[in-house]
Write a structure and sequence with these properties.
single chain, alpha/beta, Rossmann fold, seven-stranded parallel β-sheet, six-stranded parallel β-sheet, 17 helices
Length: 392
Protein backbone atom coordinates (compact mmCIF):
# COMPACT_ATOMS: atom_id res chain seq x y z
CA UNK A 1 0.00 0.00 0.00
CA UNK A 2 0.92 3.63 -0.50
CA UNK A 3 0.22 5.40 2.78
CA UNK A 4 0.43 9.12 3.47
CA UNK A 5 1.01 9.83 7.18
CA UNK A 6 0.01 13.29 8.41
CA UNK A 7 1.43 14.39 11.78
CA UNK A 8 1.28 17.49 13.99
CA UNK A 9 4.89 16.99 15.11
CA UNK A 10 8.14 15.61 13.71
CA UNK A 11 8.26 12.13 15.32
CA UNK A 12 11.86 12.06 16.53
CA UNK A 13 13.42 12.25 19.08
CA UNK A 14 10.72 10.48 21.06
CA UNK A 15 9.76 12.94 23.79
CA UNK A 16 5.97 12.73 23.85
CA UNK A 17 3.28 10.08 23.47
CA UNK A 18 2.12 11.13 20.01
CA UNK A 19 5.70 11.15 18.72
CA UNK A 20 6.39 7.71 20.18
CA UNK A 21 3.28 6.26 18.53
CA UNK A 22 4.05 7.93 15.20
CA UNK A 23 7.70 6.82 15.12
CA UNK A 24 7.02 3.15 15.81
CA UNK A 25 4.03 3.04 13.47
CA UNK A 26 6.13 4.54 10.68
CA UNK A 27 8.97 2.13 11.40
CA UNK A 28 6.74 -0.96 11.35
CA UNK A 29 4.47 0.10 8.46
CA UNK A 30 7.52 0.78 6.28
CA UNK A 31 8.33 -2.96 6.24
CA UNK A 32 5.53 -3.75 3.80
CA UNK A 33 4.35 -0.37 2.53
CA UNK A 34 5.47 2.82 0.80
CA UNK A 35 5.23 5.78 3.18
CA UNK A 36 4.83 9.47 2.42
CA UNK A 37 5.15 11.44 5.66
CA UNK A 38 4.06 15.07 6.06
CA UNK A 39 4.53 16.72 9.45
CA UNK A 40 4.51 20.10 11.13
CA UNK A 41 7.28 21.36 13.38
CA UNK A 42 8.07 24.52 15.33
CA UNK A 43 11.80 23.85 15.02
CA UNK A 44 13.58 22.05 12.18
CA UNK A 45 15.14 18.74 13.28
CA UNK A 46 18.86 18.06 13.29
CA UNK A 47 20.36 16.12 10.41
CA UNK A 48 20.78 13.07 12.65
CA UNK A 49 17.11 13.08 13.66
CA UNK A 50 16.04 13.78 10.10
CA UNK A 51 17.92 10.74 8.78
CA UNK A 52 16.47 8.50 11.51
CA UNK A 53 12.95 9.12 10.17
CA UNK A 54 13.87 9.51 6.52
CA UNK A 55 15.17 5.95 6.23
CA UNK A 56 11.61 4.65 6.67
CA UNK A 57 9.99 7.00 4.15
CA UNK A 58 9.59 7.09 0.40
CA UNK A 59 9.06 10.83 0.81
CA UNK A 60 9.34 13.09 3.87
CA UNK A 61 8.02 16.65 3.98
CA UNK A 62 8.55 18.89 7.03
CA UNK A 63 6.59 22.14 7.32
CA UNK A 64 7.69 24.69 9.88
CA UNK A 65 4.89 26.54 11.65
CA UNK A 66 6.32 29.86 12.80
CA UNK A 67 5.73 31.35 16.23
CA UNK A 68 3.79 34.22 14.68
CA UNK A 69 1.54 31.82 12.74
CA UNK A 70 0.79 29.82 15.88
CA UNK A 71 0.05 32.98 17.86
CA UNK A 72 -2.26 34.29 15.13
CA UNK A 73 -4.01 30.92 14.92
CA UNK A 74 -4.66 30.97 18.68
CA UNK A 75 -6.05 34.49 18.45
CA UNK A 76 -8.48 33.35 15.75
CA UNK A 77 -9.52 30.54 18.09
CA UNK A 78 -11.03 33.07 20.49
CA UNK A 79 -13.71 33.86 17.93
CA UNK A 80 -14.21 30.34 16.55
CA UNK A 81 -16.10 27.27 17.73
CA UNK A 82 -13.37 24.72 17.02
CA UNK A 83 -10.90 23.61 19.73
CA UNK A 84 -7.97 25.93 20.34
CA UNK A 85 -5.53 23.17 19.46
CA UNK A 86 -7.16 22.77 16.02
CA UNK A 87 -6.66 26.48 15.38
CA UNK A 88 -3.10 26.30 16.74
CA UNK A 89 -1.99 23.63 14.25
CA UNK A 90 -3.76 25.04 11.16
CA UNK A 91 -1.42 25.23 8.13
CA UNK A 92 -2.62 25.95 4.55
CA UNK A 93 0.83 24.87 3.31
CA UNK A 94 0.39 21.42 4.89
CA UNK A 95 -3.00 21.08 3.22
CA UNK A 96 -1.56 21.99 -0.21
CA UNK A 97 1.37 19.59 0.28
CA UNK A 98 -0.90 16.66 1.17
CA UNK A 99 -3.19 17.42 -1.78
CA UNK A 100 -0.22 17.39 -4.16
CA UNK A 101 1.26 14.13 -2.81
CA UNK A 102 -2.09 12.30 -2.80
CA UNK A 103 -2.88 13.44 -6.35
CA UNK A 104 0.51 12.64 -7.88
CA UNK A 105 1.36 9.36 -6.11
CA UNK A 106 -1.89 7.36 -6.17
CA UNK A 107 -2.03 7.26 -2.37
CA UNK A 108 -4.24 4.45 -1.04
CA UNK A 109 -4.67 5.69 2.55
CA UNK A 110 -4.31 9.13 4.10
CA UNK A 111 -3.56 8.33 7.75
CA UNK A 112 -4.14 11.33 10.03
CA UNK A 113 -2.78 11.29 13.57
CA UNK A 114 -4.91 13.42 15.92
CA UNK A 115 -7.91 15.60 15.21
CA UNK A 116 -5.81 18.74 15.81
CA UNK A 117 -4.68 18.79 12.14
CA UNK A 118 -8.17 18.30 10.69
CA UNK A 119 -8.07 21.73 8.99
CA UNK A 120 -4.94 20.66 7.10
CA UNK A 121 -6.49 17.64 5.36
CA UNK A 122 -7.79 18.05 1.78
CA UNK A 123 -10.87 15.83 1.68
CA UNK A 124 -12.70 14.51 -1.42
CA UNK A 125 -9.49 13.34 -3.11
CA UNK A 126 -9.34 9.82 -4.62
CA UNK A 127 -8.09 8.10 -1.45
CA UNK A 128 -9.37 6.72 1.86
CA UNK A 129 -9.09 8.81 5.02
CA UNK A 130 -8.28 7.19 8.37
CA UNK A 131 -8.14 9.14 11.65
CA UNK A 132 -6.21 8.08 14.74
CA UNK A 133 -8.01 9.85 17.59
CA UNK A 134 -5.42 8.24 19.92
CA UNK A 135 -7.28 9.25 23.09
CA UNK A 136 -10.60 10.86 24.02
CA UNK A 137 -9.04 14.31 24.35
CA UNK A 138 -12.33 15.84 25.51
CA UNK A 139 -12.50 13.40 28.42
CA UNK A 140 -8.90 14.12 29.42
CA UNK A 141 -9.55 17.86 29.25
CA UNK A 142 -12.73 17.49 31.29
CA UNK A 143 -10.81 15.66 34.05
CA UNK A 144 -8.15 18.36 33.93
CA UNK A 145 -10.61 21.07 35.04
CA UNK A 146 -10.59 19.81 38.63
CA UNK A 147 -6.80 20.02 38.91
CA UNK A 148 -6.34 23.33 37.07
CA UNK A 149 -5.54 26.65 38.71
CA UNK A 150 -8.55 28.93 39.18
CA UNK A 151 -7.40 31.16 36.32
CA UNK A 152 -7.15 28.15 33.95
CA UNK A 153 -10.49 26.52 34.67
CA UNK A 154 -12.55 28.75 32.33
CA UNK A 155 -10.35 28.12 29.25
CA UNK A 156 -9.93 24.42 30.04
CA UNK A 157 -13.70 24.08 30.36
CA UNK A 158 -14.26 25.76 26.99
CA UNK A 159 -11.68 23.51 25.34
CA UNK A 160 -13.28 20.37 26.84
CA UNK A 161 -16.69 21.30 25.44
CA UNK A 162 -15.28 22.25 22.05
CA UNK A 163 -13.34 19.00 21.83
CA UNK A 164 -16.39 16.86 22.67
CA UNK A 165 -18.44 18.46 19.88
CA UNK A 166 -15.52 18.35 17.43
CA UNK A 167 -14.70 14.67 18.02
CA UNK A 168 -18.19 13.68 16.88
CA UNK A 169 -18.56 16.32 14.14
CA UNK A 170 -15.49 15.36 12.11
CA UNK A 171 -16.19 11.62 12.09
CA UNK A 172 -18.21 11.85 8.86
CA UNK A 173 -15.13 13.05 6.95
CA UNK A 174 -13.20 9.83 7.58
CA UNK A 175 -13.61 6.27 6.35
CA UNK A 176 -11.98 4.63 9.37
CA UNK A 177 -10.84 5.44 12.90
CA UNK A 178 -8.62 4.13 15.68
CA UNK A 179 -8.01 4.73 19.37
CA UNK A 180 -5.46 3.38 21.81
CA UNK A 181 -7.84 1.99 24.43
CA UNK A 182 -11.38 0.70 24.74
CA UNK A 183 -11.99 2.80 27.85
CA UNK A 184 -11.53 6.02 25.87
CA UNK A 185 -13.65 4.70 23.00
CA UNK A 186 -16.49 4.07 25.44
CA UNK A 187 -16.80 7.82 26.09
CA UNK A 188 -17.96 8.38 22.48
CA UNK A 189 -21.50 8.00 21.16
CA UNK A 190 -22.61 4.39 20.47
CA UNK A 191 -22.88 5.12 16.72
CA UNK A 192 -19.24 6.21 16.46
CA UNK A 193 -17.92 3.85 19.11
CA UNK A 194 -18.77 0.69 17.16
CA UNK A 195 -16.77 1.87 14.13
CA UNK A 196 -13.49 2.52 15.97
CA UNK A 197 -10.57 0.07 15.80
CA UNK A 198 -8.56 -0.46 19.00
CA UNK A 199 -4.87 -0.11 18.12
CA UNK A 200 -2.83 -0.09 21.37
CA UNK A 201 0.64 1.30 21.86
CA UNK A 202 3.55 -1.04 22.29
CA UNK A 203 6.96 -1.15 23.92
CA UNK A 204 10.33 -1.21 22.21
CA UNK A 205 12.05 -4.59 22.41
CA UNK A 206 15.06 -3.03 24.15
CA UNK A 207 12.97 -2.67 27.31
CA UNK A 208 12.61 -6.45 27.54
CA UNK A 209 16.36 -7.09 27.56
CA UNK A 210 17.17 -8.68 30.92
CA UNK A 211 18.50 -6.06 33.29
CA UNK A 212 21.93 -6.51 34.84
CA UNK A 213 21.58 -7.55 38.51
CA UNK A 214 24.81 -5.75 39.45
CA UNK A 215 23.42 -2.30 38.61
CA UNK A 216 23.23 -0.26 41.79
CA UNK A 217 19.83 1.16 42.66
CA UNK A 218 20.16 4.92 43.05
CA UNK A 219 16.47 5.78 43.43
CA UNK A 220 13.78 4.23 45.60
CA UNK A 221 10.93 5.75 43.56
CA UNK A 222 10.79 6.95 39.97
CA UNK A 223 8.14 8.69 37.88
CA UNK A 224 8.73 9.53 34.21
CA UNK A 225 7.11 11.46 31.38
CA UNK A 226 6.83 14.82 29.68
CA UNK A 227 7.11 17.04 32.75
CA UNK A 228 5.48 19.98 31.03
CA UNK A 229 2.24 18.02 30.53
CA UNK A 230 -0.44 19.01 33.04
CA UNK A 231 -1.40 15.50 34.34
CA UNK A 232 2.29 14.68 34.85
CA UNK A 233 2.90 17.96 36.67
CA UNK A 234 0.04 17.16 39.03
CA UNK A 235 1.36 13.61 39.53
CA UNK A 236 4.82 14.93 40.48
CA UNK A 237 3.29 17.34 42.98
CA UNK A 238 1.11 14.61 44.47
CA UNK A 239 4.09 12.28 44.80
CA UNK A 240 6.28 14.85 46.56
CA UNK A 241 3.69 16.88 48.48
CA UNK A 242 1.18 14.16 49.44
CA UNK A 243 2.90 10.75 49.40
CA UNK A 244 6.42 11.71 50.51
CA UNK A 245 5.26 13.35 53.79
CA UNK A 246 3.39 10.14 54.69
CA UNK A 247 6.55 8.12 54.06
CA UNK A 248 8.58 10.53 56.18
CA UNK A 249 6.02 10.41 59.00
CA UNK A 250 6.58 6.65 59.12
CA UNK A 251 10.35 7.11 59.33
CA UNK A 252 11.00 5.98 55.76
CA UNK A 253 13.71 7.94 53.91
CA UNK A 254 13.40 7.69 50.14
CA UNK A 255 15.16 9.07 47.08
CA UNK A 256 12.73 10.13 44.33
CA UNK A 257 13.59 10.63 40.66
CA UNK A 258 11.32 12.71 38.40
CA UNK A 259 12.72 11.98 34.94
CA UNK A 260 11.52 13.57 31.74
CA UNK A 261 11.70 16.42 29.28
CA UNK A 262 10.51 20.01 29.73
CA UNK A 263 9.98 20.14 33.51
CA UNK A 264 7.57 22.94 34.36
CA UNK A 265 8.49 25.45 37.06
CA UNK A 266 6.10 23.64 39.42
CA UNK A 267 8.15 20.46 38.92
CA UNK A 268 11.61 22.02 39.24
CA UNK A 269 10.41 23.70 42.46
CA UNK A 270 10.03 20.23 43.98
CA UNK A 271 13.78 19.57 43.72
CA UNK A 272 15.66 19.01 46.99
CA UNK A 273 18.19 16.60 48.49
CA UNK A 274 15.67 13.75 48.28
CA UNK A 275 14.00 14.66 44.97
CA UNK A 276 15.94 14.62 41.67
CA UNK A 277 14.49 16.43 38.62
CA UNK A 278 16.48 15.34 35.56
CA UNK A 279 15.02 17.21 32.60
CA UNK A 280 15.67 15.50 29.25
CA UNK A 281 17.48 12.16 29.42
CA UNK A 282 18.78 10.39 26.28
CA UNK A 283 17.88 6.89 27.53
CA UNK A 284 14.97 6.57 29.95
CA UNK A 285 15.60 2.86 30.45
CA UNK A 286 18.89 3.64 32.20
CA UNK A 287 17.01 5.58 34.86
CA UNK A 288 14.30 2.94 35.20
CA UNK A 289 16.70 0.08 35.85
CA UNK A 290 18.51 2.15 38.49
CA UNK A 291 15.24 2.52 40.42
CA UNK A 292 13.36 0.21 42.78
CA UNK A 293 9.67 1.13 42.35
CA UNK A 294 7.73 3.00 39.66
CA UNK A 295 4.95 5.17 41.08
CA UNK A 296 2.42 6.94 38.81
CA UNK A 297 -0.20 8.83 40.86
CA UNK A 298 -2.16 10.06 37.84
CA UNK A 299 -5.64 11.39 38.52
CA UNK A 300 -6.27 13.17 35.19
CA UNK A 301 -5.48 12.58 31.53
CA UNK A 302 -6.69 9.78 29.32
CA UNK A 303 -5.57 6.80 27.29
CA UNK A 304 -2.92 4.13 27.73
CA UNK A 305 0.16 5.51 29.48
CA UNK A 306 3.40 4.60 27.72
CA UNK A 307 5.34 5.33 30.91
CA UNK A 308 3.65 2.38 32.62
CA UNK A 309 4.37 0.04 29.72
CA UNK A 310 8.06 1.02 29.72
CA UNK A 311 8.46 0.75 33.49
CA UNK A 312 6.80 -2.68 33.65
CA UNK A 313 8.74 -3.89 30.60
CA UNK A 314 11.99 -2.74 32.24
CA UNK A 315 11.17 -4.93 35.22
CA UNK A 316 9.96 -2.45 37.84
CA UNK A 317 7.17 -3.20 40.32
CA UNK A 318 4.58 -0.55 39.46
CA UNK A 319 1.95 1.34 41.48
CA UNK A 320 -0.69 3.54 39.83
CA UNK A 321 -4.30 4.70 40.09
CA UNK A 322 -7.48 2.94 39.02
CA UNK A 323 -7.99 5.68 36.39
CA UNK A 324 -4.66 4.92 34.74
CA UNK A 325 -5.12 1.16 34.90
CA UNK A 326 -8.54 1.43 33.24
CA UNK A 327 -6.87 1.42 29.82
CA UNK A 328 -3.96 -0.87 30.78
CA UNK A 329 -6.16 -3.61 32.34
CA UNK A 330 -3.41 -5.19 34.45
CA UNK A 331 -4.49 -7.33 37.43
CA UNK A 332 -4.32 -5.55 40.79
CA UNK A 333 -1.85 -7.06 43.28
CA UNK A 334 -0.68 -9.54 40.64
CA UNK A 335 0.76 -7.52 37.74
CA UNK A 336 0.40 -4.03 39.21
CA UNK A 337 -0.76 -2.36 42.43
CA UNK A 338 -3.70 0.06 42.41
CA UNK A 339 -3.98 2.93 44.91
CA UNK A 340 -6.12 6.07 44.94
CA UNK A 341 -5.02 7.99 48.01
CA UNK A 342 -1.71 8.99 49.58
CA UNK A 343 -1.71 6.72 52.66
CA UNK A 344 -2.35 3.63 50.53
CA UNK A 345 0.39 4.67 48.09
CA UNK A 346 2.82 5.06 50.97
CA UNK A 347 1.89 1.71 52.51
CA UNK A 348 2.41 -0.14 49.23
CA UNK A 349 5.72 1.63 48.54
CA UNK A 350 7.00 0.65 51.99
CA UNK A 351 5.84 -2.94 51.46
CA UNK A 352 7.64 -3.27 48.12
CA UNK A 353 10.83 -1.67 49.42
CA UNK A 354 10.89 -4.00 52.44
CA UNK A 355 9.86 -7.20 50.62
CA UNK A 356 12.17 -7.67 47.61
CA UNK A 357 10.87 -11.17 46.83
CA UNK A 358 7.26 -10.00 46.55
CA UNK A 359 8.37 -6.91 44.62
CA UNK A 360 10.33 -9.12 42.22
CA UNK A 361 7.34 -11.37 41.58
CA UNK A 362 5.06 -8.38 40.91
CA UNK A 363 7.68 -7.01 38.50
CA UNK A 364 8.08 -10.38 36.74
CA UNK A 365 4.35 -10.83 36.17
CA UNK A 366 3.95 -7.21 35.13
CA UNK A 367 6.71 -7.56 32.60
CA UNK A 368 5.18 -10.74 31.20
CA UNK A 369 1.78 -9.03 30.96
CA UNK A 370 3.21 -6.16 28.91
CA UNK A 371 5.25 -8.43 26.67
CA UNK A 372 2.22 -10.59 25.84
CA UNK A 373 -0.21 -7.73 25.29
CA UNK A 374 1.75 -4.67 24.15
CA UNK A 375 4.45 -5.00 21.51
CA UNK A 376 4.80 -2.74 18.47
CA UNK A 377 4.94 -5.50 15.86
CA UNK A 378 1.55 -6.92 16.92
CA UNK A 379 -0.02 -3.46 17.34
CA UNK A 380 0.99 -2.36 13.87
CA UNK A 381 -0.18 -5.62 12.34
CA UNK A 382 -3.63 -4.62 13.63
CA UNK A 383 -3.30 -1.18 12.05
CA UNK A 384 -2.20 -2.60 8.70
CA UNK A 385 -5.12 -5.03 8.80
CA UNK A 386 -7.52 -2.12 9.39
CA UNK A 387 -6.12 -0.34 6.33
CA UNK A 388 -6.51 -3.44 4.15
CA UNK A 389 -10.08 -3.97 5.34
CA UNK A 390 -10.88 -0.38 4.45
CA UNK A 391 -9.48 -0.76 0.93
CA UNK A 392 -11.27 -4.05 0.32
Amino acid sequence: MKILVALSRFPFPIEKGDKLRAYYQIRELSRNNELYVVCLTDKMPSEEHLQEVKKYCKHLEIIQLSFFSRLLNLFKGIFGADPFQVHYFTSPKMKDTIAYLVSTNNIDICYVQLLRIFNNIPFELPTKYYLDYMDAFSEGMKKRIKYSHWYEKFIVGIEARRLRAFEEKIASYFDGYSMISQSDTDTFSPTLREKIDIIPNGVSEEYFVTKTPEIEKEYDIIFTGNMGYHPNIQACKYLVQEILPVLQSKGVKTKICLAGINPAQEVTALKNDDVIVTGYVPDMKEYLIRSKVFVAPLFSGSGLQNKLLEAMAAGLPTITTSLTNKALKAKDKKEIIICNESVKFAEQIIFLLNHPAEAGELARLGRLFVRENYNWRACNTLLEKSFKNLLS
